[in-house]
Amino acid sequence: MNKIDKSLKLFKEAKLHIPGGVNSPVRAFKNINGNPIFFKKAKGSKLFDEDNNEYIDYIGSWGPMIMGHSHPKIIKAISKQVKLGTSYGAPTSIESKTAELIKKCIPSIEKIRMVNSGTEATMSAIRLARGFTKKNKIIKFDGCYHGHADSLLIKAGSGVSTFGLPDSPGVPPQLAKETLSCEFNNSKDFLKIFEKVKNDLAAVIIEPIAGNMGFIPSESSFLKLIRKKTAQNKSLLIFDEVMSGFRVSLGGAQEIYKIKPDLTTLGKIIGGGLPVGAFGGRKDIMDYLAPNGPVYQAGTLSGNPLAMAAGSALIKLLIKDNPYQSLEAKSKSMLETMKGLFLEKKIHLSTNQIGGMFGFFFSEELPKNLNEVINTNDQQFKSFINECIKNGIYFAPSKFEAGFISTKHTNKEINNTISVIKEILNKGI
Q: What tens digit of pLDDT does each residue of 300-322 get?
Protein backbone atom coordinates (compact mmCIF):
# COMPACT_ATOMS: atom_id res chain seq x y z
CA MET A 1 0.00 0.00 0.00
CA ASN A 2 1.58 3.26 -1.13
CA LYS A 3 2.10 6.12 1.33
CA ILE A 4 1.56 9.55 -0.25
CA ASP A 5 2.59 11.94 2.54
CA LYS A 6 4.49 14.29 0.20
CA SER A 7 1.60 14.35 -2.30
CA LEU A 8 -0.81 15.29 0.49
CA LYS A 9 1.50 18.09 1.66
CA LEU A 10 2.01 19.35 -1.90
CA PHE A 11 -1.74 19.30 -2.57
CA LYS A 12 -2.37 21.36 0.56
CA GLU A 13 0.23 23.89 -0.58
CA ALA A 14 -1.10 23.94 -4.16
CA LYS A 15 -4.59 24.87 -2.97
CA LEU A 16 -3.14 28.12 -1.58
CA HIS A 17 -2.03 29.20 -5.05
CA ILE A 18 -4.11 27.29 -7.63
CA PRO A 19 -7.95 26.96 -7.70
CA GLY A 20 -8.70 23.54 -6.26
CA GLY A 21 -4.97 22.84 -6.16
CA VAL A 22 -4.92 21.58 -9.76
CA ASN A 23 -4.77 23.02 -13.27
CA SER A 24 -7.33 20.62 -14.72
CA PRO A 25 -10.33 19.52 -12.58
CA VAL A 26 -10.21 15.72 -13.05
CA ARG A 27 -6.74 15.73 -11.48
CA ALA A 28 -8.30 16.64 -8.12
CA PHE A 29 -9.61 13.05 -7.66
CA LYS A 30 -12.87 14.47 -6.25
CA ASN A 31 -14.92 12.02 -8.27
CA ILE A 32 -13.42 9.06 -6.39
CA ASN A 33 -13.19 10.84 -3.02
CA GLY A 34 -9.43 10.47 -3.22
CA ASN A 35 -6.31 12.61 -3.12
CA PRO A 36 -4.31 13.55 -6.21
CA ILE A 37 -0.85 12.09 -6.69
CA PHE A 38 2.00 14.50 -7.42
CA PHE A 39 4.50 13.02 -9.87
CA LYS A 40 8.12 13.88 -10.50
CA LYS A 41 9.27 11.42 -13.15
CA ALA A 42 8.06 9.05 -15.89
CA LYS A 43 9.82 6.35 -17.90
CA GLY A 44 8.39 3.74 -20.28
CA SER A 45 5.08 2.55 -18.81
CA LYS A 46 5.86 3.82 -15.30
CA LEU A 47 5.16 6.94 -13.26
CA PHE A 48 7.07 7.87 -10.10
CA ASP A 49 5.54 10.12 -7.46
CA GLU A 50 7.08 12.55 -4.97
CA ASP A 51 7.08 9.82 -2.32
CA ASN A 52 9.11 7.58 -4.68
CA ASN A 53 6.20 5.20 -5.29
CA GLU A 54 6.08 3.47 -8.65
CA TYR A 55 2.90 3.15 -10.75
CA ILE A 56 2.02 1.24 -13.90
CA ASP A 57 0.46 4.03 -15.95
CA TYR A 58 -2.75 3.43 -17.93
CA ILE A 59 -3.45 7.13 -18.56
CA GLY A 60 -0.35 8.05 -20.57
CA SER A 61 -0.92 11.81 -20.15
CA TRP A 62 -4.45 11.13 -21.51
CA GLY A 63 -3.19 9.52 -24.69
CA PRO A 64 0.01 10.93 -26.20
CA MET A 65 2.45 8.51 -24.54
CA ILE A 66 1.63 5.75 -26.99
CA MET A 67 5.34 4.85 -27.32
CA GLY A 68 5.89 5.19 -23.58
CA HIS A 69 7.18 8.01 -21.41
CA SER A 70 10.55 9.61 -22.17
CA HIS A 71 11.09 7.74 -25.43
CA PRO A 72 14.78 8.28 -26.34
CA LYS A 73 14.07 9.39 -29.94
CA ILE A 74 11.51 11.95 -28.81
CA ILE A 75 13.79 13.23 -26.03
CA LYS A 76 16.62 13.48 -28.59
CA ALA A 77 14.42 15.49 -30.98
CA ILE A 78 13.39 17.91 -28.21
CA SER A 79 16.99 18.26 -26.95
CA LYS A 80 18.27 19.00 -30.44
CA GLN A 81 15.63 21.69 -30.98
CA VAL A 82 15.94 23.31 -27.54
CA LYS A 83 19.58 24.16 -28.32
CA LEU A 84 18.34 26.10 -31.35
CA GLY A 85 15.66 28.02 -29.45
CA THR A 86 12.31 27.34 -27.83
CA SER A 87 10.05 29.75 -29.70
CA TYR A 88 10.42 32.22 -32.57
CA GLY A 89 6.90 33.50 -33.23
CA ALA A 90 7.82 33.03 -36.88
CA PRO A 91 7.58 30.27 -39.54
CA THR A 92 9.84 27.21 -39.37
CA SER A 93 10.43 24.33 -41.77
CA ILE A 94 9.53 21.78 -39.09
CA GLU A 95 5.90 23.02 -39.10
CA SER A 96 5.53 22.12 -42.77
CA LYS A 97 7.30 18.79 -42.31
CA THR A 98 5.00 17.84 -39.41
CA ALA A 99 1.96 18.95 -41.43
CA GLU A 100 3.11 16.77 -44.32
CA LEU A 101 3.47 13.75 -42.02
CA ILE A 102 -0.06 14.24 -40.65
CA LYS A 103 -1.50 14.60 -44.17
CA LYS A 104 0.25 11.40 -45.20
CA CYS A 105 -1.53 9.51 -42.40
CA ILE A 106 -4.96 11.20 -42.62
CA PRO A 107 -6.02 11.66 -46.29
CA SER A 108 -9.08 13.79 -45.44
CA ILE A 109 -6.68 16.52 -44.29
CA GLU A 110 -5.59 18.50 -47.37
CA LYS A 111 -4.38 21.50 -45.36
CA ILE A 112 -3.80 21.91 -41.63
CA ARG A 113 -3.40 24.75 -39.13
CA MET A 114 -1.33 24.16 -35.97
CA VAL A 115 -2.62 25.55 -32.66
CA ASN A 116 -1.80 25.04 -28.98
CA SER A 117 -4.46 22.72 -27.57
CA GLY A 118 -7.39 20.48 -28.44
CA THR A 119 -9.77 23.15 -27.11
CA GLU A 120 -8.25 25.73 -29.43
CA ALA A 121 -8.49 23.30 -32.34
CA THR A 122 -12.22 22.61 -31.89
CA MET A 123 -13.01 26.26 -31.13
CA SER A 124 -11.25 27.34 -34.31
CA ALA A 125 -12.82 24.57 -36.42
CA ILE A 126 -16.29 25.67 -35.28
CA ARG A 127 -15.54 29.32 -36.11
CA LEU A 128 -14.26 28.26 -39.53
CA ALA A 129 -17.35 26.11 -40.17
CA ARG A 130 -19.64 29.02 -39.31
CA GLY A 131 -17.65 31.41 -41.46
CA PHE A 132 -17.46 29.06 -44.43
CA THR A 133 -21.13 28.04 -44.43
CA LYS A 134 -22.46 31.44 -43.26
CA LYS A 135 -24.69 29.53 -40.83
CA ASN A 136 -24.78 29.59 -37.02
CA LYS A 137 -26.09 26.40 -35.43
CA ILE A 138 -23.91 23.53 -34.23
CA ILE A 139 -25.03 20.01 -33.33
CA LYS A 140 -22.94 18.04 -30.86
CA PHE A 141 -23.62 14.91 -28.79
CA ASP A 142 -24.19 14.35 -25.07
CA GLY A 143 -20.97 13.24 -23.40
CA CYS A 144 -18.66 14.29 -26.22
CA TYR A 145 -16.17 16.73 -24.76
CA HIS A 146 -14.70 19.17 -27.25
CA GLY A 147 -12.71 21.31 -24.88
CA HIS A 148 -13.78 24.18 -22.70
CA ALA A 149 -14.72 26.72 -25.38
CA ASP A 150 -17.99 28.45 -24.44
CA SER A 151 -20.14 27.18 -27.27
CA LEU A 152 -19.12 23.56 -26.70
CA LEU A 153 -19.71 23.26 -22.95
CA ILE A 154 -23.22 21.99 -23.59
CA LYS A 155 -23.87 18.52 -22.12
CA ALA A 156 -20.17 17.82 -22.39
CA GLY A 157 -18.28 14.79 -21.11
CA SER A 158 -14.92 14.59 -19.32
CA GLY A 159 -14.64 16.75 -16.21
CA VAL A 160 -18.01 18.39 -16.88
CA SER A 161 -19.71 15.03 -16.35
CA THR A 162 -17.29 14.06 -13.60
CA PHE A 163 -18.36 17.05 -11.53
CA GLY A 164 -22.04 16.86 -12.46
CA LEU A 165 -22.05 20.25 -14.19
CA PRO A 166 -24.92 20.31 -16.70
CA ASP A 167 -23.53 23.43 -18.36
CA SER A 168 -20.91 25.81 -17.12
CA PRO A 169 -21.79 29.18 -15.58
CA GLY A 170 -20.21 31.95 -17.62
CA VAL A 171 -21.57 30.73 -20.93
CA PRO A 172 -24.05 33.36 -22.22
CA PRO A 173 -27.53 31.93 -22.98
CA GLN A 174 -27.53 33.56 -26.42
CA LEU A 175 -24.35 31.67 -27.26
CA ALA A 176 -25.47 28.38 -25.72
CA LYS A 177 -28.69 28.38 -27.77
CA GLU A 178 -26.62 28.11 -30.95
CA THR A 179 -25.37 24.67 -29.85
CA LEU A 180 -27.81 21.75 -29.73
CA SER A 181 -26.94 18.41 -28.18
CA CYS A 182 -28.26 14.97 -29.16
CA GLU A 183 -27.93 11.59 -27.52
CA PHE A 184 -24.85 9.75 -28.74
CA ASN A 185 -25.56 6.70 -30.96
CA ASN A 186 -29.24 7.72 -31.22
CA SER A 187 -30.16 8.22 -34.88
CA LYS A 188 -33.79 9.19 -34.17
CA ASP A 189 -32.73 11.92 -31.75
CA PHE A 190 -30.21 13.27 -34.26
CA LEU A 191 -32.72 13.34 -37.14
CA LYS A 192 -35.32 15.09 -34.98
CA ILE A 193 -32.94 17.93 -34.07
CA PHE A 194 -31.34 18.01 -37.50
CA GLU A 195 -34.72 18.66 -39.16
CA LYS A 196 -35.41 21.53 -36.75
CA VAL A 197 -32.19 23.43 -37.42
CA LYS A 198 -30.92 22.25 -40.82
CA ASN A 199 -31.52 25.59 -42.55
CA ASP A 200 -29.08 27.29 -40.19
CA LEU A 201 -26.79 24.32 -39.45
CA ALA A 202 -23.10 25.14 -39.90
CA ALA A 203 -21.67 21.84 -38.66
CA VAL A 204 -22.06 18.64 -36.72
CA ILE A 205 -19.13 17.87 -34.41
CA ILE A 206 -18.60 14.44 -32.88
CA GLU A 207 -15.96 12.27 -31.25
CA PRO A 208 -16.24 9.22 -33.58
CA ILE A 209 -14.72 7.25 -30.75
CA ALA A 210 -15.67 8.97 -27.53
CA GLY A 211 -13.02 9.11 -24.83
CA ASN A 212 -14.69 11.50 -22.46
CA MET A 213 -17.66 9.47 -21.26
CA GLY A 214 -15.46 6.48 -20.81
CA PHE A 215 -14.53 4.68 -24.01
CA ILE A 216 -17.54 4.42 -26.34
CA PRO A 217 -17.18 3.93 -30.10
CA SER A 218 -19.85 5.26 -32.45
CA GLU A 219 -22.05 2.75 -34.20
CA SER A 220 -21.04 2.65 -37.86
CA SER A 221 -24.59 3.22 -39.15
CA PHE A 222 -24.92 6.25 -36.87
CA LEU A 223 -21.79 7.92 -38.27
CA LYS A 224 -22.78 7.11 -41.85
CA LEU A 225 -26.17 8.74 -41.30
CA ILE A 226 -24.53 11.91 -39.96
CA ARG A 227 -22.15 11.99 -42.92
CA LYS A 228 -25.02 11.56 -45.40
CA LYS A 229 -27.23 14.25 -43.84
CA THR A 230 -24.48 16.86 -43.45
CA ALA A 231 -23.32 16.35 -47.05
CA GLN A 232 -26.88 16.67 -48.41
CA ASN A 233 -27.43 19.80 -46.33
CA LYS A 234 -24.08 21.41 -47.21
CA SER A 235 -23.27 21.50 -43.52
CA LEU A 236 -19.80 20.44 -42.40
CA LEU A 237 -18.94 17.26 -40.52
CA ILE A 238 -16.19 17.76 -37.93
CA PHE A 239 -14.49 14.73 -36.41
CA ASP A 240 -12.94 15.53 -33.05
CA GLU A 241 -10.00 13.15 -33.03
CA VAL A 242 -8.05 14.91 -30.28
CA MET A 243 -8.07 11.60 -28.38
CA SER A 244 -8.57 9.00 -31.11
CA GLY A 245 -6.24 10.52 -33.71
CA PHE A 246 -3.08 8.39 -34.09
CA ARG A 247 -4.29 6.44 -31.03
CA VAL A 248 -6.71 3.90 -32.46
CA SER A 249 -4.95 3.65 -35.83
CA LEU A 250 -2.49 5.62 -37.92
CA GLY A 251 -5.37 7.30 -39.75
CA GLY A 252 -7.49 7.72 -36.63
CA ALA A 253 -11.12 6.68 -36.20
CA GLN A 254 -11.99 7.91 -39.68
CA GLU A 255 -9.69 5.24 -41.13
CA ILE A 256 -11.46 2.53 -39.12
CA TYR A 257 -14.97 3.72 -40.03
CA LYS A 258 -13.97 4.62 -43.63
CA ILE A 259 -15.75 7.96 -43.34
CA LYS A 260 -14.24 11.21 -44.61
CA PRO A 261 -15.10 14.27 -42.50
CA ASP A 262 -14.83 17.82 -43.82
CA LEU A 263 -12.69 18.93 -40.87
CA THR A 264 -10.68 17.03 -38.26
CA THR A 265 -9.34 18.29 -34.93
CA LEU A 266 -6.20 16.80 -33.42
CA GLY A 267 -4.17 17.30 -30.24
CA LYS A 268 -2.07 15.63 -27.57
CA ILE A 269 -0.32 12.96 -29.57
CA ILE A 270 0.90 15.17 -32.45
CA GLY A 271 3.01 17.06 -29.93
CA GLY A 272 4.59 13.94 -28.47
CA GLY A 273 3.42 15.02 -25.01
CA LEU A 274 4.06 18.75 -25.42
CA PRO A 275 1.13 21.23 -25.61
CA VAL A 276 -0.30 21.20 -29.13
CA GLY A 277 -3.43 21.04 -31.22
CA ALA A 278 -4.35 21.22 -34.89
CA PHE A 279 -7.33 21.35 -37.22
CA GLY A 280 -7.39 20.48 -40.88
CA GLY A 281 -9.50 19.28 -43.73
CA ARG A 282 -10.70 20.16 -47.20
CA LYS A 283 -8.51 22.69 -49.01
CA ASP A 284 -11.40 24.99 -49.97
CA ILE A 285 -12.55 25.20 -46.35
CA MET A 286 -9.08 25.66 -44.85
CA ASP A 287 -8.26 28.40 -47.36
CA TYR A 288 -11.11 30.38 -45.83
CA LEU A 289 -8.76 31.04 -42.90
CA ALA A 290 -6.71 34.21 -42.66
CA PRO A 291 -4.42 35.24 -44.27
CA ASN A 292 -6.06 33.67 -47.35
CA GLY A 293 -9.64 34.17 -46.23
CA PRO A 294 -11.81 36.22 -43.85
CA VAL A 295 -11.98 33.86 -40.82
CA TYR A 296 -9.41 34.99 -38.28
CA GLN A 297 -7.35 32.62 -36.14
CA ALA A 298 -3.90 33.22 -34.67
CA GLY A 299 -1.50 32.11 -31.95
CA THR A 300 1.98 33.27 -30.98
CA LEU A 301 3.05 29.77 -29.94
CA SER A 302 1.22 27.91 -32.72
CA GLY A 303 3.56 25.52 -34.48
CA ASN A 304 5.98 25.80 -31.57
CA PRO A 305 9.30 24.23 -32.67
CA LEU A 306 9.67 22.08 -29.54
CA ALA A 307 6.17 20.62 -29.94
CA MET A 308 6.69 20.10 -33.68
CA ALA A 309 10.02 18.34 -33.09
CA ALA A 310 8.49 16.00 -30.52
CA GLY A 311 5.36 15.36 -32.58
CA SER A 312 7.27 14.77 -35.78
CA ALA A 313 9.53 12.23 -34.04
CA LEU A 314 6.54 10.40 -32.58
CA ILE A 315 4.57 10.24 -35.84
CA LYS A 316 7.66 8.87 -37.64
CA LEU A 317 7.90 6.15 -35.00
CA LEU A 318 4.21 5.28 -35.46
CA ILE A 319 4.57 5.12 -39.25
CA LYS A 320 7.63 2.88 -38.92
CA ASP A 321 6.36 0.54 -36.19
CA ASN A 322 2.56 0.59 -36.80
CA PRO A 323 1.96 -0.81 -33.28
CA TYR A 324 -1.86 -0.76 -33.31
CA GLN A 325 -2.60 -4.48 -33.63
CA SER A 326 -0.13 -5.27 -30.87
CA LEU A 327 -1.60 -2.56 -28.61
CA GLU A 328 -5.13 -3.82 -29.15
CA ALA A 329 -4.07 -7.40 -28.42
CA LYS A 330 -2.44 -6.27 -25.15
CA SER A 331 -5.44 -4.25 -23.97
CA LYS A 332 -7.91 -6.96 -25.03
CA SER A 333 -5.96 -9.64 -23.17
CA MET A 334 -5.82 -7.53 -20.01
CA LEU A 335 -9.51 -6.57 -20.14
CA GLU A 336 -10.73 -10.12 -20.85
CA THR A 337 -8.71 -11.43 -17.91
CA MET A 338 -10.14 -8.66 -15.72
CA LYS A 339 -13.68 -9.57 -16.79
CA GLY A 340 -13.06 -13.17 -15.81
CA LEU A 341 -11.84 -12.16 -12.34
CA PHE A 342 -14.86 -9.93 -11.78
CA LEU A 343 -17.22 -12.64 -13.01
CA GLU A 344 -15.77 -15.04 -10.41
CA LYS A 345 -16.82 -12.50 -7.76
CA LYS A 346 -20.23 -12.05 -9.43
CA ILE A 347 -19.47 -8.42 -10.25
CA HIS A 348 -20.59 -7.13 -13.65
CA LEU A 349 -17.84 -5.61 -15.80
CA SER A 350 -18.16 -4.61 -19.46
CA THR A 351 -15.12 -3.72 -21.56
CA ASN A 352 -14.11 -2.49 -25.01
CA GLN A 353 -10.93 -1.45 -26.81
CA ILE A 354 -9.62 -0.28 -30.18
CA GLY A 355 -5.90 0.04 -30.77
CA GLY A 356 -4.27 1.24 -27.56
CA MET A 357 -7.41 2.94 -26.26
CA PHE A 358 -9.79 1.12 -23.93
CA GLY A 359 -12.56 1.39 -21.38
CA PHE A 360 -14.26 -0.64 -18.67
CA PHE A 361 -17.56 -0.08 -16.90
CA PHE A 362 -19.23 -1.58 -13.87
CA SER A 363 -22.28 -2.72 -15.82
CA GLU A 364 -23.64 -5.92 -17.33
CA GLU A 365 -24.09 -4.37 -20.78
CA LEU A 366 -21.59 -2.12 -22.52
CA PRO A 367 -22.89 1.48 -22.40
CA LYS A 368 -23.68 3.17 -25.71
CA ASN A 369 -24.26 6.74 -24.52
CA LEU A 370 -23.76 9.15 -21.63
CA ASN A 371 -26.95 8.24 -19.75
CA GLU A 372 -25.97 4.59 -19.71
CA VAL A 373 -22.49 5.51 -18.43
CA ILE A 374 -24.02 7.62 -15.66
CA ASN A 375 -26.12 4.61 -14.61
CA THR A 376 -23.13 2.27 -14.21
CA ASN A 377 -22.18 1.32 -10.63
CA ASP A 378 -20.50 4.40 -9.25
CA GLN A 379 -19.59 3.00 -5.83
CA GLN A 380 -17.87 -0.08 -7.22
CA PHE A 381 -15.89 2.09 -9.62
CA LYS A 382 -14.72 4.47 -6.88
CA SER A 383 -13.72 1.67 -4.53
CA PHE A 384 -11.88 -0.26 -7.23
CA ILE A 385 -9.96 2.71 -8.67
CA ASN A 386 -8.89 3.96 -5.25
CA GLU A 387 -7.53 0.53 -4.37
CA CYS A 388 -5.73 0.25 -7.70
CA ILE A 389 -4.02 3.62 -7.25
CA LYS A 390 -3.05 2.79 -3.66
CA ASN A 391 -1.41 -0.37 -5.01
CA GLY A 392 0.50 1.19 -7.89
CA ILE A 393 -1.95 0.77 -10.77
CA TYR A 394 -2.79 4.17 -12.25
CA PHE A 395 -6.17 4.06 -13.98
CA ALA A 396 -8.14 7.23 -14.75
CA PRO A 397 -9.78 8.65 -11.59
CA SER A 398 -13.14 9.12 -13.34
CA LYS A 399 -15.51 6.69 -15.04
CA PHE A 400 -15.98 9.31 -17.75
CA GLU A 401 -12.41 8.92 -19.04
CA ALA A 402 -10.84 6.35 -21.35
CA GLY A 403 -7.69 4.36 -20.58
CA PHE A 404 -4.54 3.98 -22.67
CA ILE A 405 -1.87 1.38 -23.10
CA SER A 406 1.60 1.90 -24.61
CA THR A 407 4.16 -0.12 -26.51
CA LYS A 408 6.22 -0.16 -23.29
CA HIS A 409 3.62 -2.13 -21.33
CA THR A 410 5.16 -5.60 -21.20
CA ASN A 411 3.45 -8.89 -20.44
CA LYS A 412 5.16 -8.76 -17.04
CA GLU A 413 3.54 -5.41 -16.22
CA ILE A 414 0.14 -6.53 -17.43
CA ASN A 415 0.47 -9.70 -15.33
CA ASN A 416 1.45 -7.54 -12.33
CA THR A 417 -1.66 -5.44 -12.95
CA ILE A 418 -3.82 -8.55 -13.00
CA SER A 419 -2.21 -9.83 -9.79
CA VAL A 420 -2.99 -6.56 -8.00
CA ILE A 421 -6.59 -6.63 -9.25
CA LYS A 422 -6.96 -10.22 -8.06
CA GLU A 423 -5.78 -9.20 -4.57
CA ILE A 424 -8.16 -6.23 -4.51
CA LEU A 425 -11.12 -8.42 -5.48
CA ASN A 426 -10.22 -11.05 -2.89
CA LYS A 427 -10.40 -8.35 -0.21
CA GLY A 428 -13.68 -7.04 -1.65
CA ILE A 429 -14.76 -3.75 -3.20
A: 999 999 999 999 999 999 999 99
Active site residue 142: no
CB 109 within 8 Å of CB 250: no
Q: From the candidates 55, 58, 145, 257, which is the catalytic residue?
A: 145
- Widest CA span of the chain, in angstroms? 63
Domains of the chain in start order, with CATH, are 5-66+323-427 (3.90.1150.10), 72-321 (3.40.640.10)
The single residue of 49, 57, 142, 240 carrying the catalytic annotation is 240
Query: Per the residue annotation, which of 140, 268, 399, 408 is the catalytic one?
Result: 268
55 among known catalytic residues: no
For β-strands 263-267 and 236-240, DSSP reports them as: parallel
Q: How many CA atoms lie within 13 A of 390 on its CB side?
A: 14
427 is catalytic: no
Q: Is 284 helix (H, G, I), strand (E, B) or coil?
A: helix
**pTM as predicted:** 0.94
pLDDT digits (tens, 9 = 90+) for 135-150: 999 999 999 989 877 6
> Hey, which residues does 201 pair with through a beta bridge?
137
204 HSE (CA, 13 A, CB side): 30
